[in-house]
Specification:
The protein contains 3 helices and 11 strands; from the N terminus they run αβββααββββββββ. It is an alpha+beta fold. The strands form 2 sheets. A 6-stranded mixed beta sheet has the order 3-1-5-4-7-10, with helices on one face. Strands 2-6-11-8-9 form a 5-stranded mixed beta sheet, with no helix packed on it. A hairpin with a 3-residue loop joins strand 4 and strand 5. The longest helix has 23 residues.
């Protein structure tokens, strides 16, 4: 039985179209889904500097809202020297070990000295918190200093739009200070970091901090 030329031609055309469609599908690059809340953002390294210091203002109300502009450095040595008013000068350049119990003991000793200076009416800044880019106090660091001790009043710190937005993976609190981390600008899911608590991993809250209260 002879095959119909028309039917054979239709089948050939259909095959050519299908082949062309497959070629187009292969040629179109896959587009990644937009990054959602809690995902790492580019660039991975802070172009302003890997170690930053934020100076909180004096408290003027039970809740003082601020959007800070940090001073950033390429080395941890420079950042911690700045944060402690030149008192701690031996921090490792690359920041390795600055979250260790031994180095935290140096920060606590500095804070005791700063509290004595404040009690005597002298100017001083207390190191109250550190946000770390990676788990277990690794990677880049965002330090916070205060001219006042923590006493239940709070600083509301908005990170929205900053490099540190959605980048915190571990936290250390010093000088009897605590923190509430917020998923968005002071709303959404929260994560409480207790007074003087060192949190090496934020679990489901990893890379989800857009704002925080230090209190």
């Amino acid at each position: 039985m002879l095959k119909s030329p028309r039917r054979g031609m239709a089948r050939t055309v259909a095959t050519l179209i299908a082949t062309a469609m497959l070629g187009l599908t292969a040629a179109v690059p896959a587009h990644a889904e937009p990054q959602g809340d809690g995902m790492e953002q580019a660039p991975f390294k802070n172009p302003a500097g890997h170690f930053c210091v934020n100076r909180l203002p004096k408290k003027t109300a039970p809740r003082t809202k601020v959007h800070l502009k940090p001073t950033c450095y390429q080395t941890a040595t420079e950042a911690i020297k700045d944060a402690t008013g030149g008192k701690i000068t031996d921090a490792p350049v690359d920041g390795k070990g600055i979250g260790s119990p031994e180095f935290v003991a140096k920060i606590n000793a500095y804070n005791e000295s700063a509290r004595r200076d404040l009690a005597a009416g002298q100017a001083a800044n207390i190191l109250v918190a550190a946000l770390f880019q990676l788990e277990y106090y690794e990677g880049e660091v965002d330090y916070y200093t205060s001219p006042d001790p923590c006493n239940g009043w709070a600083w509301d710190i908005d990170l929205y739009g900053d490099w540190w937005d959605n980048r915190t993976s571990s936290v250390q609190m010093y000088n009897n200070c605590a923190a509430i981390l917020y998923q968005f600008s002071f709303y959404g899911d929260t994560y409480y970091v207790s007074t003087n608590f060192y949190e090496p991993y934020l679990g489901d809250f990893d890379n989800r901090t857009t704002s925080l209260q230090i209190l």
